[in-house]
Design brief:
Chain lengths: ~325, ~500
């Protein structure tokens, strides 16, 4: 019986089960949690982390790492605001932001794959460079949005649900499909499992890695644009520490830092658990300072779970 | 007087009974062989002995005391040392540092280097091991590293030393040094558990022998006198295998693979050879003779400095494994763990990883087809697994090898199959199965290259043998000319110390 339970908890879908149990308990115990207003607020609060987690999942699954996502989101948010202010066209702003995001990601991927520089170091460098670009381009100040239409990106609703939540859901579906049903997704997991064996099996390792980082950049831009729209301005200091929240959510969702293991369902749940923890603490009026501690503890627990899972599956 | 006793040892993993009720005794001062096919339970037994795993039932006694250690460190302190196939030394440290790792002789935290080196020099001398303790482990050959591991066991005053296939990557000369050392340990009254697939070694070294089959005790021989090789093989596989090679003649066709003057960083001397359709060509040589290096160059795994490779008269664009695979050359490399298996992924994915590009329109997977392909090759290659979804790291070495072979058999349009040490660490039954597959592929017109360090194997299954020595192709013999002494002579370099060549 206990063995059975252990097997389920440590299995691929174990985290989903934990989530359902945790959600039920919270819904029953915490007043105002299960209200429409709070649920929408919760979903909106996880949009940024959730969007970036989609591609961070690929990055980690391929045994890579990306620390530059926070800076990239801030920078692309700035670009979107500045470009749309100057040209008067929101579409041009969005296009420019996506291009810049893709460029940053491509540079990351190219340096990591072709020059064989550790991903942690490379993205630590670009994290600072890109943050610097964001500060330089705005002279360190926040830049307000001129066209009120830009606010609508974050404010508009479809069937009562905010647009950013739809976008998040869409990205979950798309990247879940890419991971499980495409050669690209399988190659990502194979590379994370064993990069040299994947190369010898004919997978284009360099190209796959560059694509992963380029996609990561584009997705950061999406998150950056929505963030700028929500806070009605481009902020050079936005999304500081985003990389840590995103990586935490992925690890919580069972993505192995050793590469080769990731599921979209797990990542969604990881993102939601992080969001719920914060939401519940807010509802219960727990001061923000304590929230850091709780977040840290959750991450530690997640890593220990990952460890248990890995050792439970080693046999013979 | 039995010193090491196993009684009623039982271990179950989810869905598999790895060991059931194993009982046998080993006397003091004996080298005890442990044989069995892959998955027979040898590794599990060793793991329990080393404290790495726990038995569900049964116990192990050493000198009458029940061993109830919780970890390998515990086992260590009780004088049980297991030397695994993958050696556990730190490459960047010196020999002496490795031997003293975890218990450096120190005063106020400062390592007393002089004392340490002096100690180690003396102890290596006593053990009859000729290695400079100041050398870094990364500069040692695999054989020398093995010696260092054994020296470690001796220094820790081990009572029981288990060796898990110690010779699988040693040259015959290195093996001989190892055997001398084992003889010495026997004379000192140690108990040695010797796991091997090689009957020659077992007869050369062991006093007694236990054979496992499917997790059960198949046979226990108190002495090897009067025991025949055929008997042991029959005990291992549970049936008689008459001729494990089963070679049969074939008509070779036109030249399929032509390699001209290929060289690279680790093979400076340009090499040339060709392989005909339907031909099985063996590459024999000592470890470090350049066989694997040559194959990696042909496959594009390492960059070529010079040379031209062509298939069916068409030049192959050299440079990457991708291009080689697309032109019909595939390689099962020697180091399964590092270059072959995709850890953490299922058997199904490990088989489909290369061939799926043929049936994934626009990069979208055809899941039905992938299942079919996986099932086909699991069945055809007799991979022993509860399901195609099993993580490949859970399979035994032989079964992993079959999965990698399956990966390449699933690939379409393969013209040249290169297999590097295809049967290393694989049991007799599975070996015959793999040979049979190679014959069938050759009969279908594929050209096959077999790289192997086992002379009987190369002589047993190949139509032609090329011998490599010190980075050069030294000789070529047709099947009619096969003669053990001639092949060995060609493989031995003129330089005095062959062990220097490795790495």
């Amino acid at each position: 019986m206990t063995n059975q339970l252990k097997k389920i908890l440590l299995g691929d879908q174990g985290i989903v089960l934990i989530f359902i149990v945790a959600f039920t308990i919270v819904a029953l115990l915490v007043p105002n949690f299960l209200t429409e207003r709070n649920m929408l607020g919760l979903l909106q609060s996880v949009v940024t982390v959730g969007i970036v987690a989609c591609t961070m999942m690929f990055c980690l699954a391929a045994r890579d790492f990306d620390l530059s996502v926070g800076s990239t989101a801030a920078f692309t948010g700035m670009v979107a605001v500045m470009a749309s202010n100057t040209t008067g066209s929101i579409l041009v702003g969005i296009g420019a932001a996506l291009l810049c995001g893709a460029f940053v990601g491509f540079v990351n991927g190219f340096v990591i794959a072709k020059f064989r520089i550790n991903a942690l170091i490379t993205t630590l460098a670009t994290m600072q460079i890109v943050r610097g670009l964001a500060l330089i381009s705005s002279d360190g100040r926040a830049i307000g949005i001129n066209d009120p239409g830009f606010y609508q990106l974050a404010l508009s609703k479809l069937f009562g649900i905010p647009t950013p939540v739809w976008i998040l859901a869409g990205l979950f579906v798309i990247f879940g499909f890419v991971l499980n049903r495409t050669v690209f997704g399988k190659n990502t997991l194979a590379i994370g499992g064993n990069p040299e064996a994947s190369r010898l099996a004919g997978a284009n390792v360099d190209k796959t890695r560059i694509w992963i980082f380029a996609l990561q950049g584009v997705v950061c831009a999406v998150a950056g644009i929505l963030l700028a729209s929500r806070i009605t301005s481009g902020q050079p200091n936005a999304a500081v520490g985003l990389e840590l929240s995103v990586i935490s959510a992925c690890v919580l969702g069972g993505v192995s830092l050793a590469g080769g293991r990731a599921t979209m369902a797990g990542v969604i749940v990881g993102v939601m658990i992080m969001g719920i923890a914060e939401n519940v603490m807010n509802l219960m009026n727990i001061p923000a300072f304590y929230q850091y501690i709780v977040r840290g503890l959750i991450l530690l627990l997640a890593v220990m779970l990952d460890n248990l899972r890995s050792s439970a599956f080693i046999r013979r | 007087m039995s010193f090491l006793q196993f009684s009623n040892l039982t271990k179950t993993y989810p869905g598999v009974k790895a060991l059931s009720g194993i009982s046998f005794d080993v006397r003091k001062g004996a080298v005890h062989g442990l044989m069995g096919e892959n998955g027979a339970g040898k590794s599990t037994l060793i793991r329990i002995l080393s404290g790495d795993q726990h038995a569900n039932e049964g116990e192990i006694r050493i000198d009458g005391d029940v061993q109830a250690y919780g970890s390998s460190r515990d086992a260590f302190e009780h004088g049980v040392i297991v030397i695994h196939q993958e050696l556990q030394l730190v490459p960047e440290l010196t020999v002496a540092e490795n031997l003293y790792l975890g218990r450096f002789p120190a005063r106020a935290g400062v390592v007393a280097s002089a004392k340490m080196f002096a100690d180690v020099t003396e102890k290596l001398k006593i053990a009859g091991i000729d290695i400079d303790p100041r050398r870094k482990v990364k500069t040692l050959s695999i054989g020398e590293r093995q010696m260092v591991e054994i020296a470690k066991a001796v220094m820790l005053d081990a009572r029981v030393i288990a060796l898990d296939e110690p010779t699988s990557s040693l040259s015959s000369r290195e093996s001989e040094i190892l055997f001398t050392l084992i003889d010495r340990l026997r004379a000192e009254g140690k108990v040695i558990l010797y796991v091997s697939h090689r009957l020659d070694e077992v007869f050369r070294l062991c006093d007694s022998l236990t054979v496992l089959r499917d997790g059960k005790l198949a046979a226990h021989h108190e002495t090897l006198q009067g025991v025949t090789r055929d008997q042991i093989v029959a005990e291992m596989v549970g049936r008689e295998i008459n001729d494990i090679w089963g070679w049969r003649g074939r008509e070779a066709g036109a030249v399929r693979l032509k390699v001209e003057n290929v060289s690279g960083e680790r093979l400076p001397e340009p090499a040339s050879f060709d392989v005909r359709a339907g031909e099985i060509v063996g590459f024999f040589g000592l470890i470090g003779a350049g066989r694997s290096e040559l194959m990696r160059l042909v496959f594009g795994a390492d960059p070529q400095f010079s040379g031209v490779t062509s298939i069916d008269g068409v030049q192959v664009k050299a440079g990457s494994p991708r291009q080689a695979i697309r032109s019909g050359i595939v390689l099962c490399s020697e180091d399964r763990k590092h270059d072959g298996i995709l850890q953490g992924r299922s058997i199904e994915e490990n088989i489909n990883v290369s061939s799926r590009r043929h049936y994934s329109p626009f990069g979208l997977l055809d899941r039905k087809r992938e299942v079919e392909v996986a099932e086909t090759f699991i069945k055809r290659l007799k991979v022993r697994t509860p399901s195609r979804k099993q993580d490949i790291v859970n399979l035994s070495g032989g079964n992993q090898q079959k999965v990698i072979l399956g990966r390449w058999l699933a690939e379409q349009g393969v013209k040249i199959l290169i297999v590097d040490e295809p049967t290393r660490g694989i049991d007799v039954g599975a070996k015959s199965e793999i040979y049979e597959i190679l014959y069938e592929l050759a009969e279908s017109g594929m050209g096959i290259v077999v790289v192997s360090s086992e002379l009987p194997e190369v002589m047993g299954i190949c139509d032609r043998i090329l011998v490599m020595c010190a980075g050069k192709i030294a000789a070529g013999l047709n099947r009619a000319q096969f003669e053990e002494n001639a092949i060995l002579a060609a493989a031995l370099p003129d330089v005095k110390q062959p062990t220097e060549i490795a790495y």
